[in-house]
Amino acid sequence: MSVPDSIDRLIEQFAKFPGIGKKTAERMSFYLLNTPNEQSIHLAEAILDMKQSILSCSVCGSITQEDPCTLCSDLKRDDNFICVVEDADDIYRLEKTNSYMGRYHVLGGVLSPLDGIGPDELNIDALLLRVKDGMEIVLATNPSIEGEATNLYLAKLLKQKGAIVTRLARGLPVGSDLEYTDDATILSAMEGRTAL
Amino acid sequence: MSVPDSIDRLIEQFAKFPGIGKKTAERMSFYLLNTPNEQSIHLAEAILDMKQSILSCSVCGSITQEDPCTLCSDLKRDDNFICVVEDADDIYRLEKTNSYMGRYHVLGGVLSPLDGIGPDELNIDALLLRVKDGMEIVLATNPSIEGEATNLYLAKLLKQKGAIVTRLARGLPVGSDLEYTDDATILSAMEGRTAL
Description:
By secondary structure, chain A is of the alpha/beta class. Chain A folds into 2 domains: 5-53, Orthogonal Bundle (Helicase, Ruva Protein, domain 3), CATH 1.10.8.420; 56-167, 3-Layer(aba) Sandwich (Dna Topoisomerase Vi A Subunit, Chain: A, domain 2). In chain A, 43% of the residues lie in helices and 13% in strands. Chain A has helices at 5-14, 22-33, 37-53, 70-73, 88-96, 124-130, 145-160, 183-191; strands at 55-56, 63-64, 78-85, 102-106, 136-139, 164-167. In chain A, strands 4-3-5-6 form a 4-stranded parallel β-sheet. In chain A, helix 1 (5-14) packs across helix 2 (22-33). The first copy, chain A, is globular and about 60 Å long. The interface between A and B is large, with 54 and 54 residues.
């Protein structure tokens, strides 16, 4: 015998999340089964509500509940900087560090010819329209091969517009150990060494 | 700035699951945000559908879509054995092993005076009505202090009904190592040693 169909279907849905395996999906489903109905209703409503209420900001392409988003309409932020990220959630990771006070721009991915993602699939035209002479554009894509290729492609276009183009530093993560650091990271750390 | 409210609410809902921390809840929420609407709708429907379609079996107290459940109505199972479990999901864990062909009974928890759970809060009366002279009742509560206390309480009542009462063996888990096994488990394994 197996679990009732309706539980099986829920397990299947939970198991679709990245990082959620069959076991965790089972535990989540049985947990919901044993909680009051209201909790399941709240969860289902929160899921549907989020999908309905979230728009894409017409300026930066980030996710928002009003257009333009709070970051684009914030008068205290510095218009001379635009930080380019792959996805909207990267903005929240950067904002948490309080290390940057400029604007953002969301590409919606990186160049990846094998997956059929070329420049037309990314939010690049809108970025070029925002760039003005002398602005600093901070490229904050993930440090992957596709991220680097996207950076090189963008840098060329952005420099033509007269922008200063920078990217996030590569190097040893804080708290790491050389023993457990991969070669590519050590190479980047050596190339990017800074004077003390 | 923080994430839009509707995403925050969803993160909060996901973080309520046991074993799902804030980080995982965030990752799950952003994942849903980036997937087609249908996936969110399927998930929300599966949650609500499960809560609506699942009943409690009037015989054993397990979860089921029809009453009595498939295990209680299966003519091939042995009526001389009842395995007593804490929760319905424990049945699926036991059934996976194909080690038992009797019936089941779900207590709905264990005795826990500190949490206000006494005999009246558990599905014990229905169990006593099912027990007949000479039946074997296998107690399969979790090997916790509350589980053991519940076993002792049930054993007394069940023996008065003329039942043979057993419980799952305590001992070393298969594939474990004495070096990493806690004292209570080693003690149980020693006390329950079997002849080879």
